[in-house]
C-alpha cells in the first residue's frame, strides 16, 4: 500500500510541474580516454569530456537526466550512482544519489533517469559519482541553476557558461588501486594527485606545456564567476592578479557582498564572486595553489603550478608577463595556522568565512535559544588494526546491503535500533532544531563536512565568535582542530548523509546518516516519490558478480 500511495503522489507531483520547463539530459558514461594535463588515461567519463557535461537550468525547472552505464574497464568500478551536490531533493531523496543510502548503484549496460524538481532552488552546484572513490576517475561536473529574481542581479553583467570555473585534483591511476593502498598500507597517507586543474586543464612536473585555460572578459563589464571545487582531496586558494572579488554566494545561498582579493575553497564548496574588468587591456594570472598534506609523496605534483588566464578582449593571445603577483603571499599564508591574518600582513585580503551573512532568513534556526537536540560528533583516525579507519564516536561507517531509504519505505525502519551499528544512523524528529557540535581532530587536515538535503547555519566556524544572528549558511563546512557548530531544521524528510568530502576519508568511514522523520517519508504531503525504476535498481545490482559492482 505504501508504494501505491507513492505512485499516486508521483502523479500528483508531476501534474503540478506543468508550468515549469522539463529539461532532458543524457549522460553516456563510459571509459573514454581523456588527457586534461596531457597524460592519456581512461576514466569514468560523462559524454566523452572532462569535466562532465554542464547542466544549466532555471529555478523552477524539472531535470530529467538519463544516465546510461557503458562502463567496461575492469580496473575501475563498473557500476555507479550520481549525487547532485547541494540540491535539497524535497520528496525526491530517491534521486539524491549516495549508494546504499539513497539508492542501489546503476549496473553496467543499464540506465536510470534521475527526475529532480528544483522547487525554486537556485545557485551553484555540481554532480559526482557517489559510489566508493569512483569520482576521482572523472565522473564529476558543474550544475548551475539561475534565478531571474536573484537579489544580486544588479551587481553583474555576465553570468553564463563562460564564467563557471571548476577547480580539481587529477589522478593518473585508477581510484580502486590507490584506494586499496591507502586503506591497507602504512603510513596510510592520502593518495596525492598528479595535477591541479582549472576548467579541466593543468600541468604536471615533466609533462607537456598544455595551454592554460582562459577566461575571456571585456573591459568595463562585471562578471559573476562561479567557482566550484570538484576535487577529491585538495583545497585551493583562488585569486586573480590586480582584481578584487566580491563574494555574493556560498554553496547555493546568497550572502551580502564581501570584497576580498581571494578565498580558500575546500573540497565540494562553491563561491560566486563578482569580478569587474576594470584594469588595462592585458592578460592576468588566475592562481589557485593547492593545500593538501604530504604532497611530496607524488613527484608529479607541483601544488603551486595551478593557473589560468584572465584574458581581456583585445589583448595579445599570450600568457601574462611575469610571475603571478599573488602566489608568494598565498603560498606563505596557506602553510600557516592563521591563513587570513598572514595573507593580510602580505597585503592580500582573503575571505574570512565568519564575515559572510545571508541575504534571506539570516538568523540561525532557534536563534540564540537552545536547540531541540544537540548531537556531539567526535571523529578520529585509527590504524591499530593494520587497516585505516576514520570513525565518528568510535564507529566506522559502512554501507548496508539495502539502501537506508528502501529500509525506511519498504521495511518501515523508524528507530535507531533497527539500523545496524555500522550504518551509524541517527533518527531525527520532524520540525526540530538540530545542533551538531563537530569536534575537530588534531590530524592537521581541515575536513570539509557536507550535509545532504539541507543548508545549515554555521553558528561557530573555525574562525570568529559564535553567531546566532546572521551566521554563514552553506552545505560544506571546514572542521580543523577546534569545535565547529552548525544548526539546521528538520523540515525535509529523507535519509541524509553527513560526511567528510575528502573522498579518501569517506571510504575510510568518516560519515553518519540522519534518517529524518521516517514516518513522513512514507505517508503525508512530504512523502517520498518512489518510482518502479528506482525499485528495480537493487535486484539488478544484487544479481551482478562482484567484479561488476
UniProtKB/TrEMBL annotation:
Signal sequence, start to end? 1-20
Q: Which UniProt keywords apply?
A: Copper, Disulfide bond, Glycoprotein, Metal-binding, Oxidoreductase, Signal
A Pfam family (short name) is: Cu-oxidase_3
Q: Which residues cross the membrane?
A: none
Recorded superkingdom? Eukaryota
Which is one GO molecular function term here? Answer: oxidoreductase activity
- List the PROSITE patterns: MULTICOPPER_OXIDASE1, MULTICOPPER_OXIDASE2
Give every Plastocyanin-like domain span: 31-149, 161-315, 399-519
Name the protein family. Belongs to the multicopper oxidase family.
The molecule here is called Laccase
Its source organism is: Tetrapyrgos nigripes
